[in-house]
């Protein structure tokens, strides 16, 4: 899936600042994009986490020329990588009303897509309007909770949807994420799964959100539906988390308000069956503010290398793909495209986690690589 990198960037990319990673042949390099030019800042900041810890400064480095002339690829050198490295990969779940309803459906249907339609109709009739209007943690939320308990319809998912505490979990290990154009994986034994298009924040060790990118928090609905205790197996698999193409850094023209107003479009195209699904997720409908989700992620813990935070999704596909009532699930070869005007487009092709390229560069391998290139201890 080679490409001209500018086709994946927002229309105003020449006026924004972005950070990401590229393999130039000897290992990961940190690339700052400024005024339309690619600048290798690895000798000053050998990791994106070090760059973020310094506050994402407007620094200088080796000028590689105009970004659109760099010839970036996903299969050959110079090769585009995931834009993060040593950050913890955190995610917030059930931050939209629709996703709350769908999680309860998974739970009630015990991961059986065939039972989901009946549960969906009854649940939406009872709480559809209420859950969209209630403020999490408020008195109205407590009253709705009690009403649902009385009706025998309460769920652990509704607790994190309207209760005071957000669901925050670890999506995948440090250095395990994939970038634009890479093959994204679902478990080979999953029969009900879907993409989750999300905005992802880059957060410094001190808790400051420095920028945003696009992400796909692939979810196995059959596993999580059988038991919430299977969340780790549903979420954390080889090649199951993609980010990119680059992180757009906050500045005077791009702020958290742009994140709050983001409109995400999703398109899934089947490689063999001609299937096409489109979806839309509006950050305006999120029930918890991004700054609050960052605060709850920090909790009482310290992240010395910072973290990235998936903000959740409104998208929960119910359109049938094969048998009526079975809903949507991925097939091998699906092309998944997630786009929003201020961040660009993230594209990946679906394979099984067994088929996806094995994850080989962990923390130890990265340290060895940086040491061999004489880069350790060089961060400002």
Automatic annotation (TrEMBL):
<dbReference type="Pfam" id="PF01557">
    <property type="entry name" value="FAA_hydrolase"/>
</dbReference>
<dbReference type="GO" id="GO:0044281">
    <property type="term" value="P:small molecule metabolic process"/>
</dbReference>
<dbReference type="InterPro" id="IPR011234">
    <property type="entry name" value="Fumarylacetoacetase-like_C"/>
</dbReference>
<protein>
    <submittedName>
        <fullName>2-dehydro-3-deoxy-D-xylonate dehydratase</fullName>
    </submittedName>
</protein>
<keyword id="KW-0479">Metal-binding</keyword>
<dbReference type="InterPro" id="IPR051121">
    <property type="entry name" value="FAH"/>
</dbReference>
<dbReference type="InterPro" id="IPR036663">
    <property type="entry name" value="Fumarylacetoacetase_C_sf"/>
</dbReference>
<feature type="domain" description="Fumarylacetoacetase-like C-terminal">
    <location>
        <begin position="194"/>
        <end position="351"/>
    </location>
</feature>
<dbReference type="GO" id="GO:0046872">
    <property type="term" value="F:metal ion binding"/>
</dbReference>
<comment type="similarity">
    <text>Belongs to the FAH family.</text>
</comment>
<dbReference type="GO" id="GO:0003824">
    <property type="term" value="F:catalytic activity"/>
</dbReference>
């Amino acid at each position: 899936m080679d490409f001209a990198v500018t086709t994946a960037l927002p229309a105003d990319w020449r006026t924004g600042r972005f950070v990401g990673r590229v393999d130039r042949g000897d290992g990961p390099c940190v690339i700052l994009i400024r005024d339309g030019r690619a600048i290798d800042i690895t000798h000053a900041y050998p990791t994106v986490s070090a760059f973020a810890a310094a506050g994402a400064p407007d620094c200088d480095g080796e000028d590689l020329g105009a970004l659109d002339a760099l010839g970036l690829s996903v299969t050959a050198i110079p090769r585009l990588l995931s834009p993060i490295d040593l950050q913890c990969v955190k995610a917030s779940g059930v931050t939209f009303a629709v996703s709350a309803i769908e999680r309860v459906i998974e739970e009630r249907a015990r991961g059986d897509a065939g039972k989901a339609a009946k549960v969906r109709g009854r649940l939406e009739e009872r709480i559809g309007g209420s859950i969209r209007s209630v403020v999490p943690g408020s008195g109205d939320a407590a009253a709705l909770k009690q009403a649902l308990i009385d009706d025998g319809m309460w769920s652990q998912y509704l607790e994190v949807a309207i209760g005071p505490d957000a669901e925050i979990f670890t999506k995948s290990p440090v250095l395990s994420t994939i970038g634009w154009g890479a093959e994204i994986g679902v478990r080979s034994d999953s029969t009900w799964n879907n993409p989750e298009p999300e905005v992802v924040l880059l957060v410094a060790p001190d808790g400051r959100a420095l920028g945003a990118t696009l992400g796909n928090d692939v979810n196995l609905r059959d596993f999580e539906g059988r038991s919430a205790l299977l969340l780790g197996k549903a979420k954390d698999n080889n090649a199951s988390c993609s980010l990119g193409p680059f992180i757009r850094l906050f500045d005077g023209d791009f702020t958290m308000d742009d994140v709050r107003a983001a409109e995400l479009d999703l398109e899934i195209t089947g490689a063999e069956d001609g299937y096409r699904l489109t979806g839309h997720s509006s950050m305006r409908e999120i029930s918890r503010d991004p700054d609050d989700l960052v605060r709850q992620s920090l909790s009482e813990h310290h992240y010395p290398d910072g973290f990235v935070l998936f903000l959740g999704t409104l998208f929960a596909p119910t359109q049938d793909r094969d048998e009526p009532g079975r809903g949507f699930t991925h097939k091998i070869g699906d092309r998944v495209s997630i786009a929003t005007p201020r961040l660009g487009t993230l594209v990946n092709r679906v394979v099984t986690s067994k088929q996806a390229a094995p994850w080989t560069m962990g923390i130890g391998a990265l340290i060895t690589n940086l040491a061999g290139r004489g880069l350790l201890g060089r961060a400002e």
